[in-house]
Amino acid sequence: MIWGFPRLCGIDRSKYADGPIEMIATEETSVPSSIRILSALFVAAALLLIQARISSAAETTIKLGNTAPYSGPASAYGTIARAEAAYFQMLNDHGGINGRHIEFLALDDAYSPAKTVEQTRKLIEQDDVLAMFSSVGTAPNISVQKYLNAKRVPQLFVSSGATRWNDPEHFPWTVGFNPTYELEGRLYAQYILQTRPGAKIAVIAPNEDAGRDYVRGFKAGLGEHIDQLVSETTYLTADPTIDSQMVTMRESGADVFFAEATPKFAAQAIKKAASMGWRPLIILPSVSNSFSAVLEPAGIENAVGVVTGLYLKDPNDLRWTDDPALKDWLAWMKKYQPNASTGDLYNVQGYTAAQLMAMVLQNCGDDLSRDNIIRQTKSLDGVALPMLLPGITIHTDPHNVTPIRQLQMARFDGKSWVLFGDILGEE
After folding, report:
1. Diameter of the chain by CA atoms?
2. Which residue from 345, 317, 349 is spatially nearest to 419, judged by alpha carbons?
């Protein structure tokens, strides 16, 4: 049986109420009262027409918007959105959510913030999406965060671990998905100090908010051992290679290398280190530990011994062979993504994020307003989704909207990620 939505929630299906129509206040001017009255009537009529259009669509569909890099230097992340689209297709084939189909509108932004702004405005202002879901990338999502919050449009389960997604006081309509990069960076530093207390450490990170979050957490984890960080360098997403930075880090004498990089550059880092004969312990971030997008391009033989943090089950790991959740996932992949790689963790992430979004929509009951959607998103208590690692559950509340707050360390053995140690992070 394909692991479908009814099995996920077990909640009675019911119809949703219409979403709210937003009134935009404008500053009063000295326009004559008769003209103001006519203008108000015109605006009211226009809003009624918009409400009728949205209500009509909402009777049969739920529109979700998304931006992802199907092209450009971070195109490997496009896999996440494709998996989400495939999961929603599976839901639609089984009747949708409470009788409504999901219309998932995913547009290519090429990982360019300017393009993200353009595509997001189109989704909100022309396509009338109810919410943005799982848009990819830190810089792209930052570029639209203020806009979406000003418009009171939910920015849900952002596909990024930037710390700023967990700021409900200033951005009440934004909710993240990944563990925060600061938490992840801190855990890696602590792991190094525990296993290699005398290590000399090199770090590379993108020169953007995501990289700065990772490095901030990493340095916090090092604490008084910060002097063990002997080389720190950055790159730009538009750079063709990081060869010069790799030479600099090798010459520093580092024997541990935190390659905090997007998939293209993470693969380059592993491959270049091997070609130079530099053999440090390499640590990859959770956003760049895909078998097919990183390890294979780097050369499997070069990736043996690399360490990372996981919160999702690796489909390549034989320990999950008899796991019902993996069997369901593989059946779904075979039917809905027959040409996609079953070795790509981004397909697991998309599947899992879409399941969580479906649960939120189901929990909304009859009230499919944006207010209720964000309220339900902030009320997830101990949700255990099938492809999360055992012991890792999802929690949100009005004061903490980081759903996943734990990781487990894993080492690549040439075939799969092999888990070791305890679950780390926040309870």
Report:
1. 80
2. 317
